[in-house]
Design brief:
The protein is of the alpha/beta class. The chain has 13 helices and 22 strands.
Length: about 425
Amino acid sequence: MASVLRSKHIVVGVCGGIAAFKAVALVSQLQKAGALVDVVMTEHASAFVSALSFSSLSHRPVYDDLWEPTGQAAARHIALAREADLLAIVPATANTIAKLAHGLADNMLGAVALATTAPLLVAPAMEQGMYRHPATQANLALLRERGAIIVEPEVGVLASGEVGAGRLPEPETLMQAIQQALGRSGPLAGRRVVVTAGGTQEPIDPVRFIGNRSSGLMGYALAEEARDRGASVVLISGPVSLGAPYGVEVVRVQTALEMRAAVLEALGLNAGRVAADALVMAAAVADYRVDHPAAEKMKKEPGSGGIALTLVRNPDILGDVAGALRLVEEREPGALRRLVRVGFAAETTNLEAYARAKLASKGLDLLVANDVSRADSGFGTATNKVWLLHRDGRVEDLAVLPKAEVAGVIWDRVQRLLGE
């Protein structure tokens, strides 16, 4: 889980809706990720889930009554408001959204929301008619204007049995939204980065292709980590089975030629400028493609011993990026925005020699080399064993780490390069 959550104080507001049960799983995941979680329930939330469920998972009291006779809640709502790093209201009903928009504080949650200066994240969940109603949309627009982060509901089966917009996203998506919200002022805030992920598929005919075993896990981990550090992220992804990371612009491609075009476009190089601060090429791009893919499915001919395919080299995307940068610099000397370039080398033999050659030939700032012949590293594994080769000749030998942690180390190095 992303380190952005560790030791953060998250106040989770739970409203009276059927989707409140998802807030229980969310609180559990936040607590496991190292966050300190306080839960504030509206008066009707307990009709759907008990306070005991939340306190058992958060190991902290649950607050639901602003008007209890001791007067302690009145003081506690101020303390919660001041201590919070984020107020996340999950689920947010139309009634609570209206109260937030108009500054009403007639319950514990409203009082905390009005008193806090922490970022506000609102995850609406309700029937589609209520969600689409002009009043609800106007209230959400007002909250956005004030800086609130709105996690849009999904289209799905609602409590009524109808299918429409209004379904609360799953806890995993809500976790990513919270991570992004906490990272908005992170070390990559204001930066735009481009990450490539997955393998490419080069068609043989309409049903067959040449590809590789890349799962995309490393590239997706890099995209999520950059997002959690405040960056605006473009993820250019080959075909993978992974869901799109929340808050990341995903560009889907299939072939190496499509990936090349998408990279040049995302970097702004097609328009003769540099529109990003970093490019991390984690994708496993096919070196070759079929010269002339068949227009129809190729059939096995009776008695035939096989088929012959003519392969041609695919473009060198990093090389083309370097060439485009040189052209821009020649036209406007000194006008180039700094673009940190990171490449990956997946090898099975002579790892360091091949990696050094690639680092030099591509003009990279950093090269991440991994031995994909190892059982604990490479395609489809949860961990990676990598070496970081720097342009000044330094080599870092990292321990076997989860891919999310490898992504953190890579962005640490990119941040240093951006600061030079």
